[in-house]
## 1
Amino acid sequence: MKFFVDSADVAAISDLNALGMVDGVTTNPSLILKSGRDILEVTKEICAIVAGPVSAEVVALESAAMIAEGRRLAEIAPNIAVKLPLTWDGLKACKVLTGEGFTVNVTLCFSVNQAILAAKAGASFISPFVGRLDDINLDGMELISDIRTVYDNYDMKTQILAASIRSVNHVAEAARIGADVITAPPEVIRKLAEHPMTDRGLQQFLKDWEKTGQKIL
Ligand code: G3P
């Protein structure tokens, strides 16, 4: 399973990348706002740190303008994935940009039918938003599972990028289902290492070690 970091925080991305935990990055207009940085500048910095795909999102609503923005974003670095919203215009732009050889991540997916359309338009990644479905009392993980089934039924090659991942349980469940990628905030990725039994076990070992009176170094 690939881990993408859902963030435009260069320092946090760098830290995780040094540990080999970063297969790519996803950004969106809200994350750019949170970073307080210029989109072109911060995305360029991220692309220089991370070898894998870095998603940068267009903000135009009409396909011709989306295509123009997508081409501009793709100029930032060779590892840019142009992020397009799952609208009819977004699908048109997806078809054109993938035809030109760009990597495209179709975002804001909330149904299996939308995921089928994105695959048919040639998307490299589809981003179903798990947490935002949970927010409205629907089962976000059920959508990941349904898309996995449908894509496998028809051998659709678009990668399932489980997005809006908010908890460690989301990560484990997406992995169990077989999502190709999860994108999660840095703090969720760091929390994956935590377990109370690990802490308790470590305390016990250290207590016993002290009683031996020994030293390793
Ligand atoms: O990259 C988009 C997505 O991951 C958003 O997450 O938590 O704002 O729903 P969230």
## 2
Amino acid sequence: MIVLGIETSCDETAAAVVTDRREILGDVVLSQLTDHRPYGGVVPEIAARAHLDHLDGLIRRAMDEAGLGFDQLDGVAATGGPGLIGGVIVGVMTAKAIAAVRGLPFIAVNHLEGHALTARLTDPAPEGLSFPYLLLLVSGGHCQILAVEGVGRYRRLGTTIDDAVGEAFDKAAKLMGLGYPGGPLLERAAEGGDASRFDLPRPMKGRPGCDFSFSGLKTAVRNRLSELPPGPFDPIDIRDLAASFQAAVGDVMVDRCSRAMAQFRAEHPTGDTLVVAGGVAANKYLRARLTALADKQGFRFQAPPLRLCTDNAVMIAWAGLERLRLGDTDGLDFAPRPRWPLDPTARKPDGKGAKA
Ligand code: KG4
Ligand code: ZN
């Protein structure tokens, strides 16, 4: 079984081809970083236009890499949401057109489901990763802990009540004058820093449940910066503040994840794997903290290779394939969804309904 996947929900335009033998035959990603950098963030209108300009060429390249024609595909999958709606429409319409012309099944994939199932494609064990497992999804747009119980069966144990963790990195880095996107720049700035120098809060640490909050941490960074001497920041101050910030995020993650692990274990005694996905999973310090936590709790730690942690189309093709083999496909009347919670029963911490 071979599936073409398309991802256009944020600022990466991507196409990929995967098989049910866990092979990646084609995989191309075009980042729009340089288009958005002057604005210090993703501009939805620019993103949608860039997807439109590049998607057909990228699909051609992915198919060429795979050495396949469209008639050799078994299905076409595209991110159907959640995400920036202009971009999602471009990807969904393109996938539908290919499916309609070639008479192929179309699968609208939830972007979060793509992140959630990638570990089943990349797990090094010969038989792959079986359900259930615990997933920490940490990116610029998402910050959730999920029990992944099967294809289409995701139970949210925790989510952020304000900013996603990648967003917190980006905002803190911006305040420190480090540039965009802030995560990798802040990680580099923190190297060799004194993580105990600045006193920063650990929001939600020790609280019941597994939810996150990061806006207070960002405010604390702003306050610490305002206490520094006027004029350009001293690089040593920034180094120590970045290290202190990372340590605070690490403490919060370890606290929240260890609670989620206990809850997951109580419900799923056979589940033994913690999967980390999303762009923030690139952070070496956080990876090390989570690996140590997993070791301590008797969990196996699994993080997909970096290029499959950040947004890509391999994860969409794979999630599409997992759905296709269960016969779970979508009609050509599928409407793109700007919001699409993975766990429809999950409530926002304020009780006002689900947040994607
Ligand atoms: O998954 P992703 O590529 O896009 C989505 O948000 O869906 O994640 C991007 C986010 C950005 O907020 C970026 O700053 C953060 O991941 N990030 C990092 C690191 N690399 C990327 N955060 C902390 N440390 C890093 N090394
Ligand atoms: Zn993503």
